[in-house]
UniProtKB/TrEMBL annotation, chain A:
Domain of life: Bacteria
Domain FecR protein: 106-195
One matching Pfam family: FecR
Name by which UniProt lists this protein: FecR family protein
Automatic annotation (TrEMBL), chain B:
PANTHER family named in the record: RNA POLYMERASE ECF-TYPE SIGMA FACTO (PTHR43133), RNA POLYMERASE SIGMA-70 FACTOR ECF SUBFAMILY (PTHR43133:SF46)
Family of this protein: Belongs to the sigma-70 factor family. ECF subfamily.
Protein keywords: Sigma factor, Transcription, Transcription regulation
Protein name: RNA polymerase sigma-70 factor
CDD domains: Sigma70_r4
UniProt-listed Pfam families: Sigma70_r2, Sigma70_r4_2
Sequence ranges assigned to domain RNA polymerase sigma factor 70 region 4 type in this UniProt record: 112-161
Entry's transmembrane regions: none
């Protein structure tokens, strides 16, 4: 077969009748022409098998109709609409909750609690005390609400405030102890600098390490102490010229007992310490130097204190 | 109604499409697979699909849609299957003034030709038969088979070359 015939489209053009007269003339003289002509003629006489289109059409109509008649399956949503509503409610709840989230800590009688705040500052909460703070935005607003007694070890950062009913303590340094009970307010500064503002007197004092201040009978008392850390965190409560009422109150909190103070002069001052481990020993260490005696009412469990002078 | 706005979903239009294209669609598939039953099934499937998707197919695009579906169905089902075409036997020469010897030769040639066509690669065969039996223009074949006119011409030429070589000289 000659090369020009094998060309990509030569034969195709021949079939389509698109050859030029010269090309056709040349092609007719080639050996291949008779065979190819015969193939072409013969193949045009071929017929495809009969195709019964009407039969197929009626079959199709039937099929298409049955397709339509077929009840379409009910479409069930994978996620029903109410789930979205429920999710929205849950998310809204969650956002609301985290926005206003408050951490609340509370200690019962004879219980102490160590708390680590979000900025790694630590708080030790003494017996029968409450502590509240907002978790969200803690870094920018370090403020706590305290009722009771707690020891603070504050990490560096923006101002750290402890709000109590009796006053506000603002940290200018790092470690301090706060006592705020009904009518009593006491702050001891162990490290750094603390500013104490009394809400009753409306005065403020800056405490340096070893300084302590208390508000008794609407008077601000300042004194020095020489402890590195508040002793109650080590199992002992220490007092320095403290009204005896506060000392007895501390015993009540520590040992979960009730003391009957009706027979004694609660304005006396006490200097010393009592242990948290032994009630008897604690009572003795407080009562004996103060010239008090005590007796236990076995029925009510109330410990009655008496002044020795009266006997 | 003009063709652009006709809906395939309407029974009349659908039937019109069927009447226009079913036969040639059938032939096309038949040239590919060489199995009448299979070709009929594929044509039927293609039209059922057209009906099910009637709202998505524009009337003027229905033809190429049908051929595309038929091609895909064919590929899914019968690709690689050995094909034996069985053409309807028709007397291709009804002249009687030929010698018996000549008639016999012609008959023999027909048998040979059919066999060689059946042995053609599917892509060449469909082009060749669409052109020779259905008398379709290359442009139409290109539309049906989804290839370019150039490619159609090339396959056509190749088919003829193959046939010529296999049949030898007469």
């Amino acid at each position: 077969m000659e090369k020009y015939i094998k060309d990509d489209s030569f034969l195709a053009r021949w079939i389509a009748g698109e050859l030029t007269p010269q090309e056709l003339e040349k092609f007719k003289k080639s050996d291949d022409y008779p065979v190819l002509k015969k193939i072409n003629d013969a193949s045009q006489n071929l017929k495809a098998p009969t195709f019964n289109d009407q039969a197929l059409l009626s079959k199709l109509k039937e099929l298409n109709n049955s397709e339509q008649a077929k009840p379409k399956g009910k479409v069930v949503k994978l996620i029903p609409n109410w789930v979205y509503a429920a999710a929205a409610v849950v998310i809204a709840f969650g956002v609301f909750y985290t926005m206003t989230m408050k951490s609340h800590f509370q200690t019962g009688f004879s219980e102490q609690l160590a708390i680590v705040l979000p900025d790694n500052s630590s708080v030790k909460l003494n017996a029968n005390s409450h502590l509240d703070y907002k978790t969200l935005g803690w870094k920018s607003n370090r403020a706590l609400q305290l009722e009771g007694e707690a020891f603070f070890d504050v990490e560096k950062g923006k101002s750290f405030k402890v709000n109590t009913d009796s006053g506000m303590v603002e940290v200018l340094g790092t470690e301090f102890n706060v006592i705020s009970r009904d009518s009593y307010f006491e702050v001891q500064c162990m490290e750094g600098k603390v500013r104490v503002t009394s809400s009753k007197i409306g005065d403020n004092v800056i405490l340096l390490p070893g300084d302590a201040v208390r508000v008794v009978n609407n008077e601000l008392e300042k004194w020095d102490f020489s402890l590195k850390e508040s002793n109650w965190t080590l199992g002992e409560s220490t007092f320095n010229n403290t009204p005896i009422e506060q000392v007895l109150y501390a015993i009540e909190n520590q040992f979960n007992i009730t003391l009957d103070k009706s027979n004694i002069d609660t304005n006396k001052r006490f200097t010393g310490a009592f242990t948290h481990r032994d009630l008897n020993l604690a009572l003795k260490t407080v009562a004996v130097p103060m010239g008090l005696s005590y007796s236990v009412n076995k029925e009510t469990g109330v410990i009655l204190l008496n002044s020795n002078n009266n006997n | 109604m003009d063709d652009e706005t006709k809906s395939v979903c309407e029974q009349i239009n659908y039937e019109q499409l069927f009447n226009t294209h079913s036969k040639s669609l059938f032939n096309f598939v038949y040239y590919k697979c060489g199995d009448r039953q299979q070709a009929e099934d594929i044509v039927q499937d293609a039209f059922v699909r057209l009906w099910n998707n009637c709202s998505k197919v524009i009337f003027t695009k229905a033809k190429s849609y049908l051929y595309t579906i038929a091609r895909n169905l064919f590929l899914n089902e019968v690709a690689h299957k050995k094909v034996v075409l069985q053409h309807q036997s028709v007397p291709f020469n009804d002249r009687t003034n030929e010698s018996p010897e000549f008639l016999l030769e012609e008959k023999e040639f027909m048998v040979k030709l059919k066999k060689v066509i059946a042995d053609l690669p599917e892509k060449q065969r469909e082009v060749f038969l669409l052109s020779r039996i259905d008398k379709k223009k290359y442009s139409e074949i290109s539309e049906i088979t989804g290839i370019s006119v150039k490619a159609v011409e090339k396959r056509m030429s190749l088919a003829l070359i193959t046939l010529r070589e296999k049949l030898g000289n007469i």
